Amino acid sequence: MKKLSLIAPLLLALSLSACVTNEEPAVPEGWQEINVDTVPEIAAMVEDTDGTLTVGTSPPFAPFELKDSDGNIVGVEMDLVRALSQVMGLDFKPVEQDFSLILPSISGNQVDAGASGFTDTEERRENYDFVDILYAGIQWAQKPGDSIDPDNPCGLTIAVQRTTVSETDDVRPKAEKCLAEGKEPITVLSFDSSDNAALALLTTRADALSADSPVTAWAVNRSGGEMELTGEIFDAAPYGIAVPKDSALGPATAAALQHLIDTGVYAQILAQWGITEGLVDEAMINERPINV
User: Fold this and answer.
1) How far apart are CA 1 and CA 3, in angstroms?
2) Helix, strand, or coil (residue 246)
3) How many domains does the chain fold into?
4) Are residues 126 and 252 in the same domain?
5) Residue 87 sits in the same domain as residue 217
């Protein structure tokens, strides 16, 4: 009986990890790969020597990017960037990287662009342009039945993915505020992936999870009832595909996105991954419409 009491929690942890990792089908039920034709006038805008759009990405960050059972990188951003590449007459090649290295890799010409749930912020715009693809905010999750208030987190342990806005703009500033006000400190658990951050909540290492709203919703939906949303979505901001500052790739990618919006393919791709809110009505670079 003592052995069983030790094994049961381990099996539970393993079964819960399957809810937010790749032991179950990576793509949603009914998913189909969407292919589109090249648009010659948009392809003519592209300055590319090898005919391939090489894109840095950091799975797992479901539903934006994750790996299937064969090790292929899939996700809504991968589907969208593949379609954008096709419109521009380019092959698509995702390159797995640590999230913190993607933007420097663009600067170093190691990849052409970055697609990994990047929030389009004023700070990042100083060195990169962002073709905005979606509006999303920060959303917290908790264990069912808890009463965690994201506005009053002092004394809690919060799981986040390292270097995301949930860490840098949400939890870290709140932790500093708790200390400044003489309240119980926040313990911040930073992980290399959103999956591991969610797993920390599932296994009760953390009291709550802070992540981008589509990421939190995906984790909750796949947790088998072991997680629930808490609080409202806040700090809504655009997600964007990162490209070199003032490069020809920005306008070309934005024109390709506008084509996907006009033809309905953009909404179709996002809907396959359960994203029906926060869609952009027109293509933008750094939140500015491309026809301005």
Assistant:
1) 5
2) coil
3) 2
4) yes
5) no
- CA 204/CA 240 separation, integer angstroms: 33
Nearest 5°: the CA angle 199, 242, 251 is 150
Alpha carbon distance 30, 249 (integer Å): 32
Q: pLDDT for 247-286, tens place per residue? A: 999 999 999 999 999 999 999 999 998 888 889 999 999 9
Domain of 182: which CATH number? 3.40.190.10
Domain span at 184: 138-236
> Is residue 29 included in any domain, yes or no?
no
Q: Which pTM does this prediction carry?
A: 0.74
Asked whether residue 48 falls in the same domain as residue 88, the answer is: yes
Q: Is residue 13 part of a domain?
A: no
Task: Name, in order, each residue with C-beta under 8 angstroms of 13's C-beta and a sequence gap of 6 or more.
Answer: 199, 202, 203
Helix axes 2-20, 194-202, angle to 10 degrees: 140
Domain identity same for 166 and 104: no
The strand ranges marked E within 177-290 are 187-191, 208-212, 228-244, 279-285, 288-289
The predicted-structure confidence for 208-253, as pLDDT tens digits, reads as follows 999 988 889 888 988 999 999 999 889 888 999 999 999 999 999 9
Please indicate, yes or no, if residue 91 is contained in any of the structural domains: yes
Alpha carbon distance 134, 204 (integer Å): 31
Burial 83-100 (b: 16+ CB within 10 A, else e): bbbbbbbbebebbebebe
Query: Hey, what are 191's tokens?
Result: 């992980």
